[in-house]
Design brief:
Elements lengths: L10 H23 L3 H30 L3 H4 L4 H15 L2 H20 L10 H24 L7 H23 L25 H38 L1
């Protein structure tokens, strides 16, 4: 079953999503029960190097099949940088890396799992790698949040908006020099995507900004509401003690 025949939420797709949900639940359960700092770090390293190894194998295999392609070999797609940020966050727990991986990795991976763009059958290596790598980003963000207490703040939203625009400047410069199309800043991809509904180039680039202004705050909202609920619970306990 190739991408042109892919049926959204087909039995195979639903099974893959069910496995992702089970993996997320397992990660959440494990992260809550690991108390030793050393064990937490080992778990993070296992996630980091396991996912990195899969990406290296997939990249080498793709190069052997299609030959050298800068769009496949140079990690300058936004999802590539988010993956590298996730890898760094798992090993260092740096806030900026976590924020970049969360806003640009977790959000993108979530939608990629719901609406996969596959060129191979679901049972093919690259399709399996697609689901493992994208779900791995989600698992890593859950693990970092629960095990290490990392989380975005309201300041993360404007910080990541600036980071996203800096990425566009960097990718645009590389595209101009090398004739590439990182970030799809030079033209739309050949396959059908959401960009087809956002107008011609360069006007659809304006929608990048609009979408970021909407999606970045939405990704922060779960933490905002969690803080509000937790604050209300604390106030209730204080009132009862008084």
């Amino acid at each position: 079953m190739h991408s042109e025949d892919f049926e959204l939420f087909s039995p195979g797709h639903l099974l893959a999503l069910a496995l992702v949900v089970a993996a997320l639940a397992g990660t959440l359960w494990a992260a809550r029960r690991v108390e030793s700092e050393q064990q937490k770090k080992r778990g993070a390293a296992l996630l980091a190097f396991g996912l990195l190894g899969l990406e290296v194998v997939a990249t080498v295999r793709k190069q052997l099949i299609v030959g050298f392609d800068p769009m496949l070999s140079i990690p300058l797609h936004l999802c590539d940088l988010a993956f590298l940020a996730m890898f760094g966050a798992l090993l260092t727990r740096r806030r900026f890396l976590y924020e970049f991986a969360y806003f640009f990795g977790f959000g993108g991976a979530f939608f990629a799992l719901l609406t996969p763009n596959l060129d191979d059958p679901l049972t093919d290596f690259f399709s399996i790698r697609y689901f493992i790598s994208h779900s791995g980003v989600c698992l890593s963000m859950v693990y970092l949040t629960i095990a290490f207490g990392l989380r975005p703040t309201w300041r993360s939203v404007p910080r990541m908006f600036v980071a996203g625009n800096l990425y566009m400047v960097l990718a645009g410069a590389v595209n101009w020099l090398a004739g590439t199309n990182f970030g799809y800043l030079s033209h739309k991809p050949a396959v059908p995507t959401l960009l087809d509904h956002l107008g011609p180039w360069p006007y659809y680039l304006i929608w990048y900004e609009v979408i970021a202004l909407v999606v970045l705050p939405l990704l922060y909202l779960p933490f905002y509401f969690y803080d509000r609920v937790r604050g209300s619970q604390v106030e209730t306990r204080l009132d009862s003690c008084g």
